[in-house]
Amino acid sequence: MTAHALHGDLGSTALYDLPGPRARRRHFFYGIASTAVILALLAWLLYLLFDTDQFTTAKWRPFAYEGIQELLLEGLGNTLKAFAYASVLSLALGAVLATGRLSAHRPVRWLATLCVEFFRAMPVLVMIFFIFVALKVQPLPALVAGLTLYNGSVLAEVFRSGINSVERGQREAAYALGMRKTQVMTFVLAPQAVRAMLPTIISQLVVALKDTSLGFLITYEEFLHAGKLIASNLDYDLPFIPVVLIISPIYIGMCMLLSWFATWVARRERRNPKTRAVEVAPAEPGTVLPGR
Known about the structure:
The chain has helices at residues 3-12, 21-51, 57-60, 66-101, 106-121, 124-134, 139-165, 168-176, 181-211, 223-232, 240-271. It is mainly alpha-helical. It is globular and about 75 Å long. The longest helix is centred in the N-terminal third of the chain and has 36 residues, at 66-101. The two termini are 40 Å apart. It is built from 11 helices and no strands. Residues 1-14, 275-281 and 286-292 have low confidence and may be disordered. 74% of the residues lie in helices and 0% in strands.
């Protein structure tokens, strides 16, 4: 066995031992049992839907009407609009607060820490209601402000942890080259930290996308509000179920699209020649210097 293969084997078993034949059989049966339970649950849900006549033509015919389709598309557009504003502002606020928490000036660091801990501890719905009711802000700005304050404070901790996770030698080497603190943060620490933080950033943006549904509580006409309006005007039993069966896959699809985007960006970064590891030629005997 070569040294490289031995290193790979040791690296794969550093945290736990490889499962033996019995463990692999147990894991196989656990997988079968879990799959059977999930399939049984799905079958039970489908049985309930068919038993309550949720797939009859009469309950799905209204969604073929142009007015209902336009209402759903308008709600989806409003949801994406709120998400776009909230995601951009959250990233900007998170970067500002993270910079404040990493500041060498104590008052700035304390103020940034107070903002992060306060807005991260406050329920996002309470902030949205406070901005909408107490400050009398319009629904869209109130929703975006609440989402920005909460997600921005969470992202600030993500950014700070990502910057601190970069090897200390990178910072010291940059300072040794005469770079200022802003240059070290911009050109050395941030590019390395972003690649490590990207999955967590995307996960938090998925949370922001789902939280846009809270807008219907303050009469913002987003996707869920449109579904509620449609269901309240249908004249058959359990009208919310067909609406949920239409809205839920769209929400899930948007979240999966964000996750796919994060995976695509990560792969692109790994293929980027600027971030690819440089192969170093093996050392060879050089020319003997005069006097040696």
